[in-house]
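In practice, a research group might receive sequence data for several interacting partners and want a quick structural hypothesis before committing to experiments. The following worked case mirrors that situation: the sequences arrive first, and a predicted assembly follows.
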Amino acid sequence: MYVSIKSPLSFLLLLAINTSVVPAQADGVLPGLSALSEADIREYAIAFVNMSTSPGLEGAALTVDNDERHSDQWRSSLGFNAEFTLKDHIFNGYWGMAVVGGRLEDSIEFIADNGNPVQLDVTREVVGLRGSLGLSFPIDKYFKLRPFLSLILSDMQSEVILDDQFVLDYNLPTNRINNSAQMWSTVGSLEALYTRWYGNYQLQLSGQYHLIYTKSFSEDNPILQDTEDWNDAAQLKIKFIGPTRLSSAGRPWQWNAYTNYTNFLSTNEASLGYNDFFEIGAGLDWEINIKPLDWFGWQFLGIKAGLIVGENVEGYSVGLTAR
Amino acid sequence: MSRLIFLIIGICLLLSACVQSPDIKGDGYAFIKSNYPVVSVNGVEVEPSYTLDIPAGENTLVIVYHTYRHDYYCTFTWTAAEGTAYEVTDQYNKYPLTLYRWVRQNRFLSLRVYPIDPLKCSQEPRR
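A structural hypothesis for the assembly, expressed as tokens:
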């Protein structure tokens, strides 16, 4: 489908090409795109990295499909968080490590100033390593406050493909542009966790706020060459856990039902087509209760499946869980 | 290349030393490790301690789970097997603390098995 080239929200992707990938071209190479600022382009790239790597996020496949764009995004993480005892203190330590990854396939069509339709495809991939360290303050046996700091190092690769006719119309040197950027993000997080038992059933309520500072470096993308951005995000999670009659190797299984709400508060919705969504799902957890290297307790290994819905986004989440 | 081999061997040696059974005092004893301080053993108050040799047989331990509003004094009574290690930790279970039997599975892994809840956890104002 086609959209007006004057519609700024639809053309963040195009901006990425215009400004970052063909830096030698003057304004007007992609006519009409100058309405979009460098800040929009930077935010588009950083939003993708944040939505793939921030703490508190779980694996998901997301689709944005509207009149102006079609995009598929997935993210995945493999990691673990745990508390450790600080003897002679009321508070405990908290740490976490994760390998995170994400991919975005964004496709958009527009009408250039010469009236011809233009197809633009953007593919981004990110791989990152996240480490977290913080404290856990038990207020009483139900309620904990957990401030922690995360450092995320990530590498993003981007590829932009323009359709051939557009390249001919504007005498561009190529229709395919690749670039990369390296980013480090520092995330300050505060989590409030409330846990309560009702008979054999457990209710877990969690609220998280993340303040994210991202610094990017790139040798081939001027917009991300040496820049920074601030974002914040909030999450609310509700989980209800109950026993089952199942057991394996003498260890019981639990069922759970959950709902989460995630909002990237300061991220422009135009960047990825959404900035908040709900997830509702269910899972089964097997109580393994092991201590790898006799270091940290790993109590449950589970599977889960969830549906994701939002104003402009839908998707699903299927995967393994560990806690 | 030789450096890499030494590095791998070093990591293997390091990992092989990770999960070690505790030194238990001797015949007629068991061992307990707690993430929270043990303050009473079989009715006798003791200096807060995180590791203890305890006699095999029935034991009653009081372990304190501290929070900023309250202290929870959790009383565990169970029959400790000779030469066996136990571990007390907090795990979002029904009570603030849970007692497990600690088992060395292999050099990489230990297990927490046979959970025991405390008989009671008395809530007291924070001292």
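Before designing any experiment, note the following. The mean pLDDT of chain A is 84. The helical segments of chain A are 12-21, 38-53, 164-169, 269-272.
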